[in-house]
Design a protein that fits this description.
Layout lengths: L1 H5 L3 E4 L11 E5 L3 E8 L7 H13 L4 E6 L2
Parallel strand pairs: 3-4
Antiparallel strand pairs: 1-2, 2-3
């Protein structure tokens, strides 16, 4: 999220990351619109279920897209 802010984008972070419905924050991209952001810490591979849940959250909340960021 900080990297997005450093790039000059408007970032709105959730106050709590648990129970966030799969979205940790949102970022405004002037060319695309509002994007959902999900940040995960992985020690191995990405969990497919987390990606599917994030995709569902993007559609359910009518975002223009999303960024799934991980440390894996």
């Amino acid at each position: 999220m900080t990297a997005l802010e450093d790039a000059g984008l408007l970032v709105l972070r959730n106050r709590s990351y648990s129970g966030d419905g799969g979205v940790d924050g949102v970022v405004w991209n002037p060319r695309i619109g509002w994007l959902a952001v999900q940040v995960k810490r992985y020690s191995t591979h990405i969990c497919r279920g987390h990606l599917l849940d994030f995709g569902d959250a993007i559609q359910r909340k009518n975002f223009n897209g999303g960024l799934f960021v991980h440390t894996g």
